[in-house]
Predict the structure.
Amino acid sequence: MIKKELLKLRTMNATSKMMQMADADVPKRTVYKTWNGEHVSLSYKCSLYLRCQVTHGFLKVAFFLPEYMRTGGKKAAYELYIDKEKGEFITYDRIRQKWLTAKVDMLPWPGYFYNTKNKWISPQGHDRIKKYLGGEHGGYKGLLEYQLKIRAEELKRRHKRETDPWDLDMAQTPKLPKDWERWVNKVGITENYIFYQYSRKGAETGYCTFCEKEVAVSKPRHNKTGRCMRCRHEVTYKSIGKAGIVMTKDSKMYLMQRCEDGFILREFNGYRKYRKGDYKNPEVSSWEVRRAIYDHNASPMNAYYWGLYPKIRIIVTQ
Ligand SMILES: [Zn+2]
């Protein structure tokens, strides 16, 4: 809404009927004492008077306050403009001469505004508001309901803006490769063991966790490292009698995949766990901890981190 244009729209003054009503509404004064002296609270029968018109596609509502009307002031304290087509509203504060974005209930009203719910508007004005806004109510209530609806829509749009990139990125995340679990087990997790049965003469064979076979060993010693003679992988020897639960350290693994924007880099953690006496059937675990999307020029776009909560997003600034 162009503010300058809005101010050019016809000014509405309080009608003589409103002025008479305000004149007759002598406020009730309540004096109350607090720690810092006496205070006076005013109560009117009607705390606000409204006039409205539909002009140039806008709904313009003028709000008049009895305290000024009772001294002859016909000018509005606030003027609210609603552009229904754009779903926008703004209020001009004529006393302080500034624009306000607050809803009608949050405008800086005088204290007596809250002492009564009575507000006056002509039946025609009431219906005009209802008709223009297309809501369930007219008058002040209709205005507030409309503004609440606009605020809710704004919030929804903002939330959508924030979650849209996430959803898009999730949609373009490819499936894990078919042999991913095997790769995790054999390549991603690098630690391997040879489990052997201790004998006084020295064990001659042991079970290599990489080969998944009995392999020849020569003088293995518990927790010492060596190499499997068959697969040449570095191994840690584990005496079956002495080893309790054996667990590899967490291994970091990275998976790079093509996606719509360019490519996606996924970080995983994983480990293998051997239960006592069941070293041929390890439990292999891996889980994704980070995900980053890069465009075709390898510039980072969005990154996600799997923390305690599953959808924490970290924006990588470019
Ligand atoms: Zn081996």
In short: The pocket of zinc ion is lined by residues 208, 210-211, 215, 228, 230-231, 233 (CB under 6 Å). Residues 164 and 170 are 10 Å apart (CA to CA). The chain has six helices and 19 strands.
